[in-house]
Design brief:
Layout: H1 44-58, H2 61-69, H3 79-100
Length: 105
């Protein structure tokens, strides 16, 4: 199998020779992500402690090597940044689902 493009907005360090779709279709970006959420109302200090532990784990050499080998770009942002990201993604993908007729099974 030969990769012809990646969907991220920038080339991946795991395969820098593979172009992005955005290099042909400006503005194209489809990114997978993984994040952690807690129940609404979780005390701020608890949220921050969880975040600090996750970020520390993401800096461990074995974790960096394993995720990097899979082409994962480790971000480890703030809870506020993740809130904004989710707030941007939900209407985007809801609109795509509606326009294309995608429904949950």
């Amino acid at each position: 199998m030969t990769a012809i493009a990646t969907a991220d907005p920038k080339r991946t360090p795991a395969a820098p020779e593979v172009p992005t779709v955005a290099e042909t279709i400006p503005g194209f970006s489809v990114q997978s992500f993984l994040g952690f959420v807690v129940p609404k109302g979780t005390p701020r200090d608890v949220v921050q402690a969880i975040r600090n532990d996750i970020v520390a784990s993401l800096k461990l050499p074995d974790v960096v090597a394993t995720l990097g080998a899979g082409g994962v770009d480790i971000v480890g942002g703030t809870p506020e940044e993740f809130d904004r990201f989710i707030a941007e993604q939900v209407p985007r993908w809801a609109g795509i689902a509606k326009r294309t007729g995608i429904t949950a099974e």
